[in-house]
Amino acid sequence: MATKPKQTADEKLLEQVSRHSVLLEWLKAGEVKKFETYLRRADAHVRDQLTSKELKTYSRSRLEEFLGRVGGKLLEI
User: What whole-number distance in Å separates Cα of residue 56 and Cα of residue 65?
Assistant: First the structure.
């Protein structure tokens, strides 16, 4: 009858670290998804406030340029 060879301490540790790493990645993905939702809502609110008709033309063009850069950074997330 063949028996399964016992794992060494290093092999056990490697398996535990691998499992922990996978679980941590799942947690991270969930947290990023929650935070991304908040960032998108905040981005929409800030854009609405900053692009109101009360701004001057020069200010509006500068803000639109800035919002474009911010949007690019959000896409990198």
Answer: 14
Say which amino acid occupies 73.
K
CA nearest neighbour of 73 among 45, 41, 40, 49:
40
Q: Which of 33, 36, 13, 15 is nearest to 25 (CA)?
A: 33
Q: Considering only CA atoms, which of 18, 20, 21 is closest in space to residue 10?
A: 18
What ranges do the domains of the chain cover? 29-77
Q: Which two tokens stand for residue 17?
A: 């670290």
pLDDT tens, position by position, 7-66: 898 899 999 999 999 999 999 988 888 888 888 888 888 777 777 666 666 677 777 787
| Distance, CA of 13 to CA of 54 (rounded, Å) | 62
